[in-house]
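FW: tagging you since you asked about this chain on Friday. Here's the raw sequence from the shared folder, copied in full. Didn't touch anything.
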Amino acid sequence: MGVDVIVVQPQPLNNSIQATGTILANEEVEIRPEITGKIEKINFKEGDKIKKGAIACYD
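HL: got it, structure written out here
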């Protein structure tokens, strides 16, 4: 009866999961104007963080 021998070596672990599903945000924000008008320029892209008091849009 034979015995298998393997040399153990450290290796990085793949710490990821592949799955199919739906991702839902835990927070939402609804932006409504205080006045009516037409937005001419938006100073941010989707996903950008905007600091309090920053000008996000121009009319």
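FW: Residues 33-59 form one domain.
HL: agreed, and The radius of gyration is 26 Å.
FW: great, closing this out.
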